[in-house]
Amino acid sequence: RCPLRNQHQMQRMYSVLFIIVGIVSTNGMGSNTAEIDHLLATFSYVSYDESQGFRLFPLKGTCHRFDRLKMFLDQGTYTKGELFVSPGLKTYIIAWRGTDITSLDNIQTDLQGQSRPCAMNGLPCGNVHAGFLNAYRSVQDDVANVLADLDPTYSIYITGHSLGGALAVFNALDIATSNFTSSLPISIVTVGQPFVGDSLFKSAFNSKGIIFRRYVKQQGPYQDIVTTLPTVIGRIPTVHVVDPLYVNCSGSPAPCVSNQMKLFAGIILHYAETYVSRMRPDGYVPLTCGTSCSDQGTTSDLWSYSRFPSTGCNITQNSTFLISVTSSDLIVECLIPINTSYKYQYKRPCGNQPSQVIVPMGTYPNEHIASGVIPTAGTYQLVLENHNSIEYADITWTYDMMYVQPSPNPPQNLSITSAGFNFISVQWNRPSGNIPIKEYILDFNHANSNDSDFYISVSNKTTSYRLTGLPTHEMYIMTVRASNSAGSSVASNYVSSLTFFTPSTSSVADISPKIVNASQINVFNVSAPSGDYIYFAKTTSSSLGPCTGAMDNKLIIQDGTIKLPSTYSAGVYAICYGYRDSMYDIEFTVQKFNVTILPHAILKDEWRSS
User: Fold this and answer.
1) 468-523, pLDDT tens digit by residue?
2) Which of 394, 423, 459, 517 suits 148 as a labelling partner, its CA being 20 to 30 A distant?
3) Interior CA angle at 69 toward 68 and 73, to 5°?
4) At residue 44, what are phi and psi to the nearest 5 degrees?
């Protein structure tokens, strides 16, 4: 929608929006839920970024522009949501930001886990998480004010990650119970969403006919930990509104959680980035969206016609146009190749060339949208024609010409090959296809901070890299993209790793005795530095690794000895060793010795003879 810039009471005006984009649908975003949900997951992810006036995203193989109509922001709770519109897709998208870990207000919202009675526009809705509802209430009036201006024939999609998913649930119920009447059902897609309310809330929500798809990342026995919280609000058990759709993080292109990071699986599986990468639909085509040329202005007192841009705009093959026009004048709009002979002829649209007409002759007091495909590449101009019998016309216009080009496919199978106290090494496979690659872009950041991402350019002749000089005991998230002149690919799979100390398997020169009795305090002589740690791990311990539980049950080496409490039961124990600076179980390594604890009724000599 283009606002009029000169509003004269007696003048006839029309406004024009001219956009060259990818294939445009006039029936919403279609029925391919996998592709739609991937786009919505992308919106939930980029909602963490700084706000922009518009966003370009691919859908159905081509690019579309989504203009921001409104930002919902409350500084007190630091709640943020954005409303976008795509006239070509006849679609609204509302994206809610998740928890900003640098915001104390956001963190307090998450921690307000007590229950609060819920009523939405007169509909009782059980008991809900007080912090989540308070956050939504802080912007609810702004949402209500916007609803009156929405087109009821457009589709409405709501999305969010983490806290944003909880806000999306309240937003959907709010709209469904408001005075806003839509000809299409409201759809909501959340990723990594926590529990919101109790069984009464579930019943109230499901009574409104809202289409809801809730995605949860899963890898083997692990799943996104936030989707399991909070289990109670006050003393009331929580339930999810709908069953989950699981996003598989196992196998190809590579597991989301590497073996050495399984202790942190629940946290790693919550990352918004991996929802986007793992929800790509089958046959996903990587595309780069960009703007070829754009302009805006006012043409006053138009008598016959006007052309713009003056030098034309270069359009790639199979781009499409999207035009929005509003006028009480008799007008025609044409799309004409710049090298084509054109002559204005009254009441003969587009110089009597019907194939170049994109808005037929007529008056359009209400907004009119037209779209179509441009099958041939070339340089084009938009021609605005006035076919009033005697009156001039004033025109306010805006146009953006956007291109879509194939970008490289993403690199495959990114994996951690090694990690240490100040380095992480990664490797990947080249992308599929024959699209040339100029370089790889390695993207990494601190998982436990809100620092900006770091980008490293890597030669296209290699498929591995070693990050060095990193602080110890930091967790990093990494992905890699392929890049060429058309742009960058989407991200590969994401991997995570800690920088940590890893003692060798021969750090303990010896330990004695190697056979002791149970139900007594046993003292061991350990050939290792005092102040370091020993963990006795039963050889039947968790499949997570033999040293799982080391940080909770470690014993300190003092003057070359370890005192083992009498509570240790009979069995064979592996000796796990960790430096005094160890902070995680993965910093313990199994040594070459085992210790056997015998039942107290069996003497060591008898055990040897048997």
Assistant:
1) 999 998 888 888 999 987 778 877 877 888 899 989 999 999 999 999 999 999 99
2) 394
3) 85
4) -65, -30
